[in-house]
Amino acid sequence: MVRAGWSPSVRLFEAAACAVPIISDDWPGLSELFAPGRDLLVSRSAEETLRIVRDLPEEERRAIGERARARVLGGHTAAHRARQVEEDIIAARDRLKAQGARVLGDGEPKMGAHGKPILFLHPKDFLGTLIELEEA
Description:
This protein is mainly α and 136 residues long.
């Protein structure tokens, strides 16, 4: 998400996963993750936030929370992120292999010491330097 120019707090996803109705400020990228007005509410002032808290019926609060939960469980869990990391590593591997680099082992990402998938590139292809591909 940082590559997209924004990196939301993990708390947003944690709250949504618990079906908590969320009131957020607007920020670039929010609508890439959630549907404002449907999965969460956007407030532009303290007065608007107070109005939402006071006036939004309980049934609608619950519905918003449930939609946010469904959105998170459908595409924003740790398992989804792990698949994205592995896909990124495989894409980097394929680009480097196309340029003549050799991958050590069977060429498939393995779980590294920090719990992230990694690949190693052959040192002979990089002036004697062992290259480890791991998404930060």
